[in-house]
Amino acid sequence: MATEMLTLGKALNAGLRKALENDPKVVIMGEDVGKLGGVFRITDGLQKDFGDQRVIDTPLAESGIIGTAVGLAIRGYRPVCEIQFDGFVYPAYDQIVSQVAKMHYRSRGKLSIPMVIRIPFGGGIGAVEHHSESPEAYFSHTAGLKVVSCANPEDAYVMIQQAIASDDPIVFLEPKRIYWDGREKRPVDLDAPLADAYPLHASRVVRPGTDVTVLAYGPMVRTCLEAATAAAEDGRELEVIDLRTLSPLDLGVVYESVRRTGRAVVVHEAPSNVGLGAEIAARITEQCFYSLESPVLRVTGFDTPYPAARVEEEYLPDLDRVLDAVDRTFGW
Questions:
Q1: Residues 180-210: pLDDT tens digits?
Q2: 124 CB neighbour count, 10 Å cutoff
Q3: CA torsion, points 202, 161, 163, 176, in degrees to nearest 10?
């Protein structure tokens, strides 16, 4: 068993390497993913080992990257596209929504689009505009796309391989702020069979609790775990669930939890207006109405464009805002 302590960034690199080794039809495409190893160095060393026909530096043209990948996918390849930053995906939005998401349906199931669109997302890195966005709701709303987000190295290593192996187009969201955070290093079994791994489209309880269900994904999972640790000092046990899959949503484990705790708080960085939190709150209310002791609350980014770096900490949900929402669930 080859178990190594990896950061999330290194785990993604190892998962991509494994996919390239296991299937000669896997190709990686994107701006600077080859010689440079990507702006976040997630593809570091892969072009050197697999060649520039499989790890391809593309022009700075996101629509071109996605359009080319659609053609490759139709021809039987499994392209993995890197969008350098979340805010750069919009030039490719037409391709993703009009072609990637629709091709299987419009061909009556004759064509598959087995491609992965990797997007580093979220804030907390002190960047300029267009570099810290959370565009997940756009893609989760689009029928024909699947959307997932990893939150730790173990999941990153397995989920990227599962996404590449899928015959469906998948938007793969990566929390950029914890790519290389040494505090997030975890033991990752590099030899574990993929068939035995936790399912790709399944939520998971990452901290059991009895008093409030707290739901998050991507970078906010760590924030919610920190809030749970702080709440425990005051005698409250928060059950933290990592949603992992945003489309399709897997809420069975959420319903079971809310029926026990009677309270729920949904946390994400994206603005609240028509965000994932609204959909999740609606579904919990529909399914768990008679178990709820209070309304489902949301802790989110604000309904404004992402702010300048010097004030982004005022925008991002933090431990105090999560704990405040938890307190409010007990006020009803």
A1: 999 989 999 999 999 999 999 999 999 999 9
A2: 18
A3: 80
User: Are 22 and 80 a contacting pair, CB within 8 Å?
Assistant: no
| 302, pLDDT greater than 90 | yes
How many whole angstroms separate alpha carbon 12 and alpha carbon 296? 34
β-bridge pairing 146-149 and 170-175: parallel
Query: Which helix (H) or strand (E) is 245 found in, with range?
Result: strand 245-247
Residue 130 annotated in active site: no
What residues contact 257, with CB distance under 8 A and at least 6 apart?
Answer: 205, 213, 239, 241, 264
Q: With 0.90 as the threshold, say if the pTM is over it.
A: yes
Mean pLDDT of 21-34: 98
Cα separation, 245 vs 70, whole angstroms:
23
Q: Where are the beta strands (DSSP E) in 20-60?
A: 26-30, 55-57
- Tell me which DSSP letter residue 83 carries: P
Catalytic residue among 131, 141, 201, 268: 131
How far does the chain reach from its first CA to its final CA, in angstroms? 51
With b for 16 or more beta-carbon neighbours within 10 A and e for fewer, the 130-143 pattern comes to ebbbbbbbbbbebe
* Residue found under tokens 């010689």: 35
Return the ∠ at Cα 185 (arms to 172 and 205), rounded to 5°. Answer: 60
Position 1 scores a pLDDT of 53
Sheet with 116-121, edge to edge strand ranges = 55-57, 26-30, 78-82, 116-121, 170-175, 146-149, 245-247
Q: What is the mean pLDDT of residues 165-178?
A: 98
What would the pLDDT profile of 54-86 be if each residue is shown by its tens digit?
Answer: 999 999 999 999 999 999 999 999 999 999 999
Q: What is the mean pLDDT of residues 236-253?
A: 98
308-322: average pLDDT: 95
Report the candidate in 113, 89, 97 with the shortest Cα–Cα distance to residue 30: 89
Look up tokens 């900490």; give the residue.
313
Q: Coil, helix or strand for 188?
A: strand
